[in-house]
Amino acid sequence: MKVDVSLDLYRIFCTVVRTGNMSAAARELYISQPAVSMSIRQLEDRMGSPLLVRTAKGVYPTAEGKLLYTYLEQALGLIQAAEEKYYQMVHMEMGELKISANDTVIANFLLHYLEQYHKLYPDITIKVTNKTTEESLKLLRNGAVDMCFVNLPIADTEDLEVLPCLEIHDVLVGGEKYRRLAEKGIELKDLPNYPLMMLEEVSNSRRYISRYAEENGVVLNPILEIGSLDLLIDFAKINLGVTYVIRELTRELVENKLYEIPVRPPVPKRSIGMVRLKNVAMSHALQGFIELMHLPKK
To answer: In the structure, what pLDDT confidence band is assigned to residue 223 with cuts at 50, 70 and 90?
Structure first.
């Protein structure tokens, strides 16, 4: 049997049982004592049996009323807990932010924002996954992360919202052995004459640079292919060869541990982009991070 009873009637009934007095319940609920009595009568009518025994000293539940109270008290407690948790999430007092990006972007771009975000919202749990562009997009589409930061451009974006965050430049670098080469630069057609080290072909950055070279009639044949840009930088520093890095995300260029070698024509500039699923409501935790980065919300 389904009984159409408002939540307010249940709240009033539980308060009366807990206080054992209609007047005490009225004071706690900030309503009149006649309103409490009327609500209890309405509830009893709808439930089809008496729920309270009235005495000169107060009230106590019938057997049926005690059973109803036992379950309602638990249910109302869960509702209150849900309301409190919702309030905490809305006001950034709890929640979770899940991000995916590659290690270079995390260390040299996102880390600053993550530090600021944690200071502002210390109770938000931050989960950062280190993945390639392709892997990050897969996690996003599977719902495992809220957003990802990837090297643009990317294909198949019909279901994605893509916001460029930082303009970047892919540049060729070398260690001390190539310092003089950095002063005069080289032609792209001559690049195959040098020991070139590159990321593996699964990397979006590798594919972008390879396309640029092919569009200029040059095929790149690296002597070394690995999945870590940090290792490529380490190898370049000990003069094992030259490699491509992102100028804006490579501290070694600022510290003069690597030297930028101008290549003519240069690799066209591109961007790091924030990507999220279209038509999916943003959590308050995610909204807060986007606002912190001053990114537009579509």
So the answer is: very high
Q: Which residues contact residue 284 at a Cβ distance below 8 angstroms, ignoring those fewer than 6 apart?
A: 89, 90, 91, 92, 95
Instruction: Give the per-residue pLDDT at 76.
Output: 87
> Residue 20 in contact with residue 60, Cβ under 8 Å?
yes
Tokens of 98: 């899940």
Give helix 22-29 / helix 7-19 axis angle, nearest 10°. Answer: 130
Structural domain tally of the chain?
3
Same domain, 276 and 153: yes
Final residue before a domain boundary, out of 71, 90, 109: 90
Question: 51 φ, ψ to 5°?
Answer: -115, -20
Tokens of 287: 């909204």
Contact 263, 257 (CB under 8 A): no
Residue owning tokens 């961007």: 271
Kindly state the percentage of the chain with pLDDT values over 70. Answer: 97
232 and 175 co-located in one domain: yes
Q: How far apart are CA 76 and CA 192, in angstroms?
A: 72
pTM confidence score? 0.71
Cis peptide before 153 (omega within 30 of 0): yes
The verdict on residue 104 lying in a domain is yes
- When the pLDDT of each residue in the chain is averaged and rounded to a whole number, the result is 91
Q: Which residue has the tokens 């638990």?
A: 74
Least-confidence region, from 34-48, 203-217, 283-297: 283-297
Report the b/e string of 146-155 with b at 16+ CB within 10 A.
bbbbbbbebe
Q: What residue numbers bound the domain in which 28 lies?
A: 7-90
pLDDT > 90? residue 207:
yes
Of residues 137 and 281, the one with the higher pLDDT is: 137
Q: How far apart are CA 279 and CA 56, in angstroms?
A: 60
Give the residue from 38, 58, 90 where a domain finishes.
90
